Every structure is written in C-alpha cells, then in structure tokens.
C-alpha cells in the first residue's frame, strides 16, 4: 500500500474519531492485508450520518447519497467512507428499496456478502474485529455467505459471480451451503445487467486463477446461463493425434490455466478461439472442424456484443479468433504476405494466443519460435516502410482516380515489401512497365 493511501486513510479516520464517531477499516482492504496482498484503495465504515460526513468532508464526492457513501480523493489515491446501514426489500436482484442508517457496526456487517469481507480493523490500534467468523474462513480458505446464502444472493444476484471470482483469485473453496444456493439461483443471474456480468467475467479472466474460475462457473451452473456457447464445448471430442489432452472444453481450460494475468483481449481470445468448434464438428476421415475459425469469429462478435464489451475489444478479439489458424501456413508465406500478417494491430496478442494454444495441446513450440524469430528479425522500416508513391503521384502520371488506382498502389506496396522496389523512381518505372498506360 502506498504511503499516500495510508496517510489519507489515517487522516479521515482521525477526523471522524475526533468528532466522537466510531470508525473502522472494512472489507477487501482488511482481507487483502491479512493475506499479504497489495491494497490499492480503502473502505471505511462509521456511525457518522451522511449529513455529518458532508460537514466533516466538504470536498468529498457523494457516490451513493442514498446509501450514505462518500469518496475522498487526494493526490491520485482515494478512500470511501460509508455510514453503518441495513437494507431491505431488494428489487431486481440488486437495489434495496429501504435503507436504514445504524449505530451498530455488526448490523452493518450482516448486510454484506461474505464473511471474509466482513472483517474490521481499528485504524488506531490495528486490532482486528471479527464478529461474523471471517478470520476462521480466511485461515481455512473458504468463501462463505453471511447468514442465509439464498437471501444474500437474492439481494444481489451478482454476488454469485463474486463468490466464484474470490474463490478463483484466492485459491479458496466455496462453502457447500453457499455453492448449493448458487446452483439453485443460477438462472437468476441474467436478471442483472450485461455490463455488471461483463465486469465480473473480466476480473475472473484477468486477476489470476482463470481456469479455476471457469471450472467453478461450470459446476455452479452459471456458465450455462451467461456463456452457453462456452458450455457447449464440453464433450466435443477432438482428433487425438492433434489434441491428446481431450475435448474442446479441456483444451480451452488448458489455455486459461497458462495465461497468468493477461490483457482482456488475450484472455477473451483464449476463451473463445475454439468457440466455433461445436457447431462445425464433422466426422469424415477423422474428426474435423472445417471453418471453425471463421464461424467462431462471428460467434465471438455476437457474444461480446451481448455482454456490452467496447467495440475496440470486440474487433480485436474477433480478429484473433478469425486468424488463429493462420500460423499453420506462416512458414510458407512469402515475404510480403508474412509482413502483412505480423504488422497488423494486435499481432503480439495473437502470437501469444498461438503459443498458449500449442502448449494446451501438449505440442512443442518449434512453429511458434520460427514465426517469432522471423518477426523479431524484421526491422520496423522493413515492416512498415513509408509508401514509395501515392495517389497524387499516379494522378500526375495521368491515371484517373478510381478502384484501379487502389489496385496499382497495393501492387506497388507488395513489391516494396518483397524488397523488389527501393525508391520512388523504381516504383514509377514498375507502374509504367506493368500497368496499362495512363490515358492521355
């Protein structure tokens, strides 16, 4: 944790205590400190009313006025301060209709999601307060809902995905009663917004433990609800000579296991690169998946659009899925074709997807190394050289604007990438030699 965050947290706590109010550090920051995980933000809880918080921190941002939540920022760090509260009469699996401010911190803790997130730390003594048994679950590596699990998940359906995320990232088990409630209520997950589901999936994919996360999504029934196309990979057999590891689902889990903490585009590429295999499986001379890359690209666009991913992420992942099979032909590509292949946006992620794809199939990295070495040997000036001629040059030579001009310029670039043309003069001579004379 940064010194700035420490100082700001201490100042906020001191001002509240000086006003005669209870104040504690609470939630994820307490949990992560006890686990030795770096903390980047801090939540405080207090019996100060929202009106008192406004007076004590006049420059604070009200991020949840109805819930008595204030955000205090300084020098790039922030702490969140919330009034003790209880909630009831939840609607739409997310929003409570009634909020009551409390003076008892234990009442506040009972409305929270999991015991490991209901730990308190005294800002002044450092003492841990644990009225709901969070420390025992933290030591045992257990994700346990507070009180009645079904009630907690009915209050906010997203907590089901959060249970999976915490278990995956921390390497914990989900307590049996908590998991049973998730299995029962899994169909309700789609009552909440696609954006909230998306954000939890991003965290599961990128915070570490993605394989474990997707195994839990599957065993809990959540995967079938939010990503039925991925669930459909289970049991889809592959040719054993190329995929001794097993079916498409097992292969995909193998990529997720090896990702680490990747950028979201690569993570989604790993998850969806073979999403087109279930609908394209055929049994000919062997099991085949003809065109699964192109079919999968279209499915990828539909899936990510449904989950409201940004357009740039959708385009990047769709391209990865569409092109992930091109590496089998990379060794036979000519100079210009290879340069076009490797200079496209996102190629570094595509190359990493290829590496993970090979490793998850139990193969060697010879083809990956060959492409990587050839790619890295190309200087930037050869990979993306400035054009030798432009459309204006062709107009000066007497050519008319139109589709034919684009064809000529692409042909010149092809020869340039092949190393056959080095200068503008050579390019003009090539055009005059190869293409029909310009109208005069």
Tell me what the structure shows.
The protein is an alpha+beta fold and 440 residues long. The chain has three domains: 3-140, Beta Polymerase, domain 2 (2-Layer Sandwich); 227-383, Hypothetical protein af1432 (Orthogonal Bundle), CATH 1.10.3210; 391-434, no CATH class. Helix content is 52%, strand content 12%. The protein has helices at residues 3-18, 28-35, 50-56, 105-109, 134-140, 149-155, 158-170, 176-185, 194-206, 210-220, 222-226, 228-231, 248-258, 264-272, 277-280, 292-306, 311-323, 335-342, 347-360, 366-376, 380-383, 391-396, 403-417, 424-434; strands spanning 23-26, 42-46, 61-64, 69-74, 77-83, 85-91, 95-101, 120-121, 128-129, 142-143, 173-174, 282-283, 287-288. It has a seven-stranded mixed sheet. A hairpin with a 3-residue loop joins strand 6 (85-91) and strand 7 (95-101).
Rounded to the nearest angstrom, the distance between the terminal CA atoms is 73 Å
User: In the CATH hierarchy, what is the architecture of the largest domain at level 2?
Assistant: Orthogonal Bundle
Helix/strand structural class: alpha+beta
Q: Could you tell me the strand content as a percent range? A: 5-15%
Count the helices. How many? 24
Low-confidence stretches: none
Q: Portion of residues in helices?
A: 40-55%
Looking across the biggest beta sheet, what order are the strands in?
Answer: 3-4-5-2-1-8-9
CATH class of the largest domain: Mainly Alpha
> What is the CATH topology classification name of the largest domain?
Hypothetical protein af1432
In total, the number of domains comes to 3
The total strand number stands at: 13
Cα-atom Rg, whole angstroms? 28 Å
Could you say which overall geometry the principal axes of the C-alpha atoms support?
Answer: elongated
User: How would a crystallographer describe the biggest sheet?
Assistant: 7 strands, mixed
What is the arithmetic mean of pLDDT?
92
GO biological process, one term: RNA repair
Protein name: CCA tRNA nucleotidyltransferase
Family: Belongs to the tRNA nucleotidyltransferase/poly(A) polymerase family.
GO molecular function, one term: nucleotidyltransferase activity
